[in-house]
Amino acid sequence: MRAERIAPGLAIAAIATAPAWLGAYQLALLTYVGLSAIVALGLVVLTGNAGLSSFGQAAIVGIGAYVAAILTTQAGLSPWLTLPAALAVCGLGAWSGGVVMVRLSGHYLSLATIAFGAAMYFLFGGLEITGGQNGLSVPDTLFEGAALNYAIVWAALLANMTMLANLLDSRMGRAIRALKEHAAMAEAMGIDTNAAKSGVFVIACLMAGLVGWFYAYFQRFVNPSPFSLAAGIDYVFMAVLGGAEMLWGAVAGAAIVTLLKPVLQARLPWLLGAAGNFEGVVFGAIVILLFQFAPEGLLPRLRAWLGWSGLRARAVSGGQLPSGHGISAGEVLSVEGARKSFGGLLANADVGLTVNASEVVALIGPNGAGKSTFFDLVTGATRADAGAFRLGGQTITGLSTRAIARRGLARSFQHVRLVGDMTAIENVALGAHRRGARSMLSSMLGLGRAEERAFLATALHQLERTGLGHLAWQNAASFALGQQRILEIARALAADPILLLLDEPAAGLRHQEKQALATMIRALRSDGLAILLVEHDMDFVMALADRVVVMEFGRVIASGKPRAVQADRRVQEAYLGAPLAAPAGEALS
Amino acid sequence: MNAFFAAYLAQDGLSNGAIYCLLALALVLVFAITRVILIPQGDFVSYAAISFASLREGRVPGTVGLMLALTVLAVAIELARDRNRFAPRVLRLAAAPLLLAALAEISPRLHLPAVVDALLATAMVAALGPLLYRIVYRRIAAASTLVLLIVSVALHFVLLGMGLYFFGPEGVRAEPLIDLAFILGAVPIKGQSLLILATCAVLAAALFAIGERSLIGKALRAASINPTGARLMGISTEWSGSLAFLVAALIGGVSGVLISSTTTLYYDSGFLLGLKGFVAGILGGLASFPLAGAGAFALGLLESFASFYASAFKETIVFALIIPILLWRSLAARTGTD
Q1: CA distance A5 to B99
Q2: Residue A95 to residue B286: CA distance in whole angstroms
Q3: Which class would CATH give A2-305?
Q4: b/e for A3-40, b at 16 or more Cβ within 10 A?
Q5: Domain boundary assignment for chain B
Q6: What was the pLDDT predicted at A589?
Q7: A192-206, A333-347, B1-15 — which is least confidently predicted?
């Protein structure tokens, strides 16, 4: 535990004292490590945390470098004026490109960045203003001396790492980490996933642009080859080699690739007895082996080998986030005439339903009755063909999931959707996302500490309320299914909702867990919450619900007190079939 | 531009388009079955072209060494994985590569006709496909598309370096398989162009027929749509993956032999060709064969005419085109929620 805490400190000490015991050549090499690490750092956030890939980062570095070089050679601007220009071009380019990018899913995005990287390389080589393949010579330098350049680059690297660490440990950081596997869940928590994606993309591109700007004055020569698609792929290799989820992984990966490359370039041709660049074989083979045996990356593998968990409980103190509303009363959710068809199948036909404050309403019905579709209509996951939806007195018809969540609806999912590699308390804090206001920028600058404390206090309160307080700092993936369902409810509660939608909360729970869940739901009801649940366990439903609504074939066939519904003939027939004596047609009339 | 030039460029564009079409078909096939985006597809093309040229010159191609090295590696992995009754499995793995290697070794003394050399070069490259699938992808078949893509990119670099080692840096250009040229109207037509177009049509039709009509095609599609379900029905994903790679490498081999006479090819020339196959494949959303085919011909023509009007930006235009298309495909693909 102690070694784990001092390891980054030792690394920083080694970095800080390097000029004292290394020569100019090694320092220059380490300067390149630092520059590559800054670009790879952007990929750690982009790929490792947000799950977005980019093989085109080298092209962005190139844009930064060419902007600097062109403005210096053509307009004679000083480096300190070209810096904002380079960042503006890369940032604005990323922001406008992000509009396209966030709409590309999965491998489409990877391929688009490959195409972008290839296109930019040929563009750099084909334009007159960039000097074509011959490139541009840059007359100015920034700093004299290997030690000073080294110090500036590594200071910039550490500053970037600090900012990204701040970011990942904040409201927006949790949103970013949820993007990789759970974008739909994040939207249901009120997170604008498109804005989060393009924000991350802009950050990664600004960092690449910064490196490009520095490179132009450090190398004093700019030509297309360091900004090729192959270079962009190298950055991806660095990130995945070191460990794409860890910030230090970028540094480790950049160091391995950058330091190993000259060694391989010198030794391999001699070893193989042929001239040429063979280091690609070695790096390619390393990456292939990596994904076969240690897909998480070298640094996380080392950490696991040393028994460092990376998790530690932190003291949580201070007040919670402010609550958005008082105890509500009366009608919370009202739905009239909800209709939805999928092709020829009428999944919901004129479904109407109300849920009041301090009331538990259960929606039941055989499989295929349309309960899940109704949930999707209420939460905005699916748009209704017709119907009027009101939440807390406001019309929510046609609004997005996110907008509805912001008006006070929180939900749990039938198939648990937790971010497995985040702690329980972070997962719950994710639910409180909409109650905070800090942007990515202010979190990066470390201005969001007070709000972050309130987030954790709020999350811890909900964990304690649901009986999971003692597990707050464990990863959600290590929880049993029953605990995961409760954790989903805690996350929903952290949103400070007026209406709670629970999708089969008792499925897979043991008897005692069900009893504890029922007790908890009663307590929430007495706190004034309106609760709508879908559930198949009839004993659980009948003992808990104030009212039961029964659906069959997309229609409401009965509603009322549990006892009355249980006695209803149509309900019995829906579940058990029509009595043999009477033909089915007559029984329904 | 006059009509003569236009017809000339169109012929060039169509025959390049046919090659992109073949590559796109292979990429779509491999992606549909294994979710692997096969960046090394282009390397198969240059391997085949260089192998064919070496055979024509009466030399044993470097492919033999590469194929034997990969066979040894695959057998070693098979041994490490499961030693029970491994003899039949090893035999299945190694028989074809060993046979082809033996044939290639003695081929300089036999003075084979060009068609046989072409078949031998294609077969050797085809043999690489299943070997690479078993060595590189089998263990990570269930990984995410992004991981499979990164591994594909890594494999491309490995193959690129191996290509340099086994083939050397020299460019090759082979004699055309059909030495035929005639004038139609006022336009000179090259026999090789017609051969390329015909081969493309035959292979595309064969793929379509196998995919849609045969039991193998049904099994392959089942394995791609629902691997778990297919496994329960006795369809091995290992078998389907190996088969997809075999077909992809075979198509790469055919393409390489066909274009070896139209342009000078180096060990690293395949990458750009493969990438353009991708642009075409993406036009079909990596899912539809007819769309991918149409995209390939459109791309070949666009490239051919772009090289006339804006030769410095030919590649930029081709690759920049992909981004709006990707956006369109991505939006079209996202019909459901979640």
Answers
A1: 59
A2: 28
A3: mainly alpha
A4: eeeeeeeeeeeebeebbeebeeeebebbbbbbbbbbbb
A5: 3-328
A6: 38
A7: B1-15
B333 to chain A, any CB pair closer than 8 A? The answer is: yes
Mean pLDDT of chain A: 88
Question: CB distance from B55 to chain A under 8 Å?
Answer: no
Tokens standing for B69? 């090295």
- Nearest by CB to A288, from B37, B151, B326: name it: B151
* Cβ contact B278:B3 at 8 Å: no
Check if A288 contacts B (Cβ < 8 Å). yes
Distances (CA, A) of B290 to B10, B24, B196, B221: 20, 10, 18, 16
pLDDT digits (tens, 9 = 90+) for B107-163: 888 888 888 999 999 999 999 999 999 999 998 988 888 889 999 999 999 999 999
Mean pLDDT for chain B? Answer: 84
pLDDT at A585: 46
Could you give the CA distance from residue A32 to residue A259 in angstroms, rounded to a whole number? 9
* pLDDT at residue number A325: 63
A437 CB within 8 Å of a chain B CB: no
d(CA A183, CA A200): 14
Enumerate the β-bridge partners of residue A339.
A386
The nearest alpha carbon in chain B to A100 belongs to B327
Please say if the pLDDT value at position A584 is more than 60.
no
Q: Does the domain at residues A331-408+497-588 carry the CATH identifier 3.20.20.140? A: no
User: Which residue in the set B153, B161, B330 is minimally distant from A281, CB to CB?
Assistant: B161
The backbone torsions φ and ψ at residue A152, rounded to the nearest 5 degrees and listed phi first, read -65, -45
Q: Per-residue pLDDT tens for A58-107?
A: 999 999 999 999 999 998 888 999 999 999 999 999 998 887 777 777 77
The token pair at A534 is 């879908």
Sorted by sequence, the CB contacts under 8 Å of residue A67 that are 6+ apart come out as A82, A85, A86, A89, A90, A209, A212, A213
Closest residue to A184, CB basis, from B155, B279, B338: B338
Residue A45 CB: number of other CB atoms within 10 A?
A: 27
Give counts: helices (H), strands (E), chain B: 13, 2
Show the 3-state SS of B26-56.
HHHHHHHHHCCCCCCHHHHHHHHHHHHHHHH
B138: nearest Cα among B219, B223, B241: B241
Which residues of chain B from 225 to 254 reach within 8 Å of chain A, CB to CB?
Answer: none
List the structure tokens of A415.
Answer: 């198939």
Q: Hey, what are B7's tokens? A: 């017809």
Report the pLDDT averaged over residues A484-492. 93
Predicted confidence (pLDDT) at residue A579 exceeds the cutoff of 80: no
Report CA-CA distances (Å) from A526 to A459, A490, A493, A519, A523.
21, 16, 14, 11, 5
Q: ipTM beyond 0.95?
A: no
Is the CATH number 1.10.3470 carried by domain B3-328? yes
What's the rounded Cα separation, in Å, for the pair B259 and B29? 22
Cross-chain residue pair A184–B153, CB shorter than 8 Å: no
Nearest by Cα to A286 from A276, A298, A274 = A298
Q: Are A531 and A355 in contact (CB under 8 A)?
A: yes
State the Cα–Cα distance between residues A378 and A373, nearest whole angstrom. 9
Q: How far apart are CA A19 and CA A22, in angstroms?
A: 5
Q: Residue B175: how many CB atoms within 10 A of its CB?
A: 13
Q: Which residues of A fall within a CB distance of 8 Å from B266?
A: none
Give residue A327's region: left, alpha or beta (phi > 0; psi -120 to 50). Answer: beta
Q: Where are the domains of chain A?
A: 2-305, 331-408+497-588, 423-489
Q: Is A122 on the interface with B (CB under 8 A)?
A: yes
Residue A477 in contact with residue A193, Cβ under 8 Å?
Answer: no
Q: What angle do CA A271, A277, A282 make, to 5 degrees?
A: 70
Contact of A187 with chain B, judged by CB distance below 8 Å, is answered with no
Nearest C-alpha in A relative to B272: A118
